[in-house]
Amino acid sequence: MINAIIMASGFGRRMGTNKLLLPYRGKYMVEHVLGVVSKCNFYEKIIVARDDIILELGKQKGFLGMKNNRANIGQSESIKLSLKYAPKTEGYMFFTADQPFIDIQTINLLVYSFNINNQNIIVPKYCNRRGSPVIFPLRFVDELKSLEGDVGGGKVMNCHKEDIAFVELKSEIPLMDVDTKEDYRRLIVTKE
Is residue 47 classed as helix, strand or coil in its secondary structure? Predict the structure, then answer.
């Protein structure tokens, strides 16, 4: 089995506001990711956030919420916090909370790929663009726990390029994330 971990502790510096609480189709942006992940079959569903409203939204969807009081240190703190409390499983699927077009089909494809390659890091891509969510096998947990500062799983992937299994998607839409005001404007006009 796999744990789902939603990383929702960022400060939205490029956006200038907490992008996860921006409206999109009648909900907060983060609610789109929570809704899709909540419908998938994971051993445990975890959300790591610094905002109580996001933790409450996760709780309403059945997520184990973890408050990140050290978010200012960077991404590594969210990873370490989630892994400290996540049950031991074969894999850990890390989601970013700013991908409103992530869908069940993409998640299931990645999980299927992990089930047949469960020693590899599973990374979605479209053409030459990599994205998330990424699944790390249990064997990389200690390296993920040793990360420091504002770095994420990419650092571990760069040290283990031979252990990455890419999953080619049919569209770039599920990989779309929202980092800037321009991304958000594009989101508002994009059709799923």
Answer: strand
Instruction: Report d(CA 188, CA 183) in Å as an integer.
Output: 9
How many other CB atoms sit within 10 Å of the CB of residue 95? 23
Percent helix, strand, coil in the chain, to 5, is 40, 20, 35
Asked: is 2-187 a CATH 3.30.70.20 domain? The reply is: no
For the chain, the farthest-separated pair of C-alpha atoms sits apart, in whole angstroms, at: 42
Tell whether pTM > 0.85: yes
Tokens of 178: 């929202």
Is the Cβ–Cβ distance between 120 and 174 less than 8 Å?
no
Determine which of 32-46, 58-72, 105-119 has the lowest per-residue pLDDT on average.
Answer: 58-72
Burial category of 78 from C-beta neighbours within 10 Å (exposed 0-12, middle 13-18, buried 19 and up): buried
Going by their DSSP bridges, the two strands 64-67 and 23-24 should be labelled as unpaired
Collapsed DSSP state (helix, strand, coil) of residue 127? coil
Q: What is the 3-state secondary structure (H, E, C) of 95-123?
A: EECCCCCCCHHHHHHHHHHHHHCCCCEEE
